[in-house]
Design a protein that fits this description.
CATH topology of the largest domain: Heme Oxygenase, Chain A
Helix content: 40-55%
Strand order of the largest sheet: 1-2
Largest sheet: 2 strands, antiparallel
Number of helices: 21
Shape: globular
CATH architecture of the largest domain: Up-down Bundle
CATH class of the largest domain: Mainly Alpha
Number of domains: 3
Bound molecules: fe (ii) ion
Structural class: mainly alpha
Number of strands: 2
Radius of gyration: 25 Å
């Protein structure tokens, strides 16, 4: 959230050098010449379209979901990719300072669109945060450092555009292509009753004909040096492009889910909070609940004891398990003890192979139709009144917003721009003041 120190930015530069050295030998499917990029993008998009049609055909013929075995699996995925989604667009932050150089127009516009031009209903980071909050997934799981690698790379690039412009262009080129997994993820989330808007939004906004993918290719030709060696520049673009392959990719995240392991980890995390909270009149294999919870590493045995005593009936409707009845519903004794994600883990683990005869909660998924994707936010949330740098509206309840308005009035226009850019950083643009700064900036540069 804070503006990083010069030292931190220097460290980020060093980190980028290490990562770029590591991807030097990785395969790269970019065409040899930048002039072939637009055709390459079209071919990729067409291939993805065909693969998606194939996927839909399989599903229509009764095939299983390809990614998510159950709802808990999908929620696990949403949390594992959250560190990257929380900095969506960050790699382009540094281009804002070049807003008055026409060659940067495409990149600047892409960054502003990631920020929804300051409209909270269209700001990608806000949308993702809302999604996690709606699903009760905030801060539920501890993630391995690997899950932060992509986000860290994106931040490092965003703060070092001055040193890594070709790499930023190349990274952007890779990131903004439409991948098959985005389409499948959106389809299966919707099937599981989880709002897919964040994902469908990217199907439209990154499209190959006029969206971020096309602009990414255009910015390569715009920013290619004229006097210096263009092939060196393109080599560096290709290196930046390869950075997209680092970290844990979508399919690996999905494959890393192990329901039983997650249930055990979750109960182990909660153990400390519950070990003095239970009454002692019930014993399971000689131990009270408090005694079980005092032992580290014994959750699997405790669960087995609950099963042996008939408190958990796996592979049946969870409503038949006494343990589930204690957790679920307003009158349940342990109401509120487990977060929605934690409950979903337990529910799916207890259900196991059991399937309800009629799916209780499965709105039919529809194929992602790029023409039909619209904002699902209500009009009152969408498009706040545009404000200009000159006429600033009355006070709000947000202290940072009030401060922004007051301070801007005392500055020259040149300083105002720099001041706004500082508030549009990856860590700050999704706050009310950051959104206001983005709206003012967008308005000012007239894009
Ligand atoms: Fe985005
Ligand atoms: Fe994008």
């Amino acid at each position: 959230m804070q503006t990083p120190s010069a030292e931190a930015i220097g460290d980020a530069r060093e980190f980028l050098h290490q990562q770029l050295a590591a991807v030097g030998e990785h395969p790269c499917d970019l065409p040899d010449s930048p002039s072939a990029l637009e055709a390459w993008i079209e071919t990729n998009a067409a291939q993805v379209g065909e693969q998606y049609a194939e996927y839909l055909k399989t599903r229509r013929n009764g095939g299983n979901r390809r990614y998510f075995t159950n709802r808990a699996h999908a929620l696990y995925f949403l949390q594992c990719v959250a560190p990257s989604k929380a900095v969506d667009g960050a790699w382009l932050y540094g281009v804002l300072r070049h807003w008055d150089d026409y060659r940067f127009d495409g990149l600047v516009r892409t960054y502003l669109e990631e920020l929804g031009d300051g409209d909270p209903a269209q700001n990608h980071v806000v949308i993702y945060r809302k999604l996690l909050a709606e699903q009760g997934c905030e801060a539920s799981i501890e993630l391995h450092d690997q899950f932060y690698l992509q986000g860290a790379l994106q931040l490092a690039l965003g703060y070092n555009v001055r040193h890594f412009l070709p790499e930023v262009i190349g990274f952007n080129l890779g990131y903004e292509q439409l991948p098959l997994h985005l389409l499948i993820t959106a389809y299966e989330l919707s099937e599981l009753g989880i709002d897919p808007y964040y994902f469908t939004l990217h199907v439209t906004i990154d499209n190959a004909s006029s969206g971020h993918a096309r602009r990414a290719a255009h910015s390569v030709s715009q920013l290619m040096p004229v006097d210096s060696n263009p092939s060196d520049f393109y080599q560096r673009i290709a290196l930046g492009y390869r950075l997209n392959n680092l970290g844990v990719n979508t399919t690996a995240v999905i494959a890393s889910f192990d329901l039983e392991h997650e249930v055990i980890q979750m109960l182990e995390r909660k153990r400390g909070f519950g070990q003095q909270m239970h009454s002692d009149y019930c014993k399971f294999e000689g131990r009270t609940v408090n005694q079980w919870l005092q032992l580290s590493g014994k959750i699997p045995e405790f669960l087995a004891a609950l099963e042996n005593k008939g408190w958990i009936k796996r592979h049946q409707d969870p409503q038949l398990s006494c343990f589930w009845q204690l957790i679920d519903g307003p009158g349940a004794s342990m109401f509120g003890v487990f977060s929605p994600y934690e409950k979903q883990l337990l529910r799916d683990w207890i259900s196991g192979d059991w399937r309800p005869e009629q799916a209780q909660f499965q709105p039919r998924a529809r194929p992602v139709n790029t023409a039909n994707v619209r904002s699902r936010f209500t009009p009152s949330e969408a498009s706040p009144q545009r404000e200009s740098l000159v006429s600033l509206p009355a006070k709000t309840v947000d202290i940072d917003m009030d401060r922004l308005r007051t301070e801007l009035q005392t500055m020259s226009q040149q300083h105002q721009i720099l001041y706004l850019i500082e508030r549009m950083s990856p860590g700050r643009h999704s706050t009310p003041a950051g959104l206001l700064a983005t709206r003012l900036f967008s308005e000012f540069i007239g894009q």
